[in-house]
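Notes from the 1:1 (GR / supervisor)

We went over the backlog. Supervisor wanted to see one worked example end to end before approving the batch request, so GR pasted a single chain during the call. The sequence is below; no edits were made to it. Supervisor asked that the structure be written out right there so they could see what the output format looks like.
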Amino acid sequence: MVGVIATSDAVQMAEERGYDLVEVAPAANPPVCRLMDFGQYKYELTKKAKEAKKKQKVIKLKEVKVRPKTDEGDLQTKCNNIRKFLDEGDKVKVSVSFRGRERAHMEVGFKVVDRMKVILGEDAEIEKDAAQEGNAITMILFRTKKK
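Structure output shown during the call:
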């Protein structure tokens, strides 16, 4: 801490020591400056940012599509795939899509979704419950906390 000095003196002091004069708080009265190696400072910031990026977990949204006529064995297979996705830490969007006259019987799609909830049991929690969106019924699942 040097105190309040003239700008020209501060620049000269920085050059003598081989540092840069960096303005830290320009809004302060008088402005606060610091002597530092600015290139080294920027390098350390990028290094910290890379380290933080390595540690974060990116959650993807996987989609599993079924139809109202999907049979029990196929539902079991789809649910096994959902479990695998959830174990990897991803969220899963279940879509039951309807075409043509199937749209007149949306309750069949809700039964399929309910059946999948029963098959998955406590392996998955519902983030967004089954809701009709246009020609499809969608539901979003995520992994329950392991005990």
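Supervisor's comment: The first strand starts at residue 20 and ends at 25.
Batch request approved.
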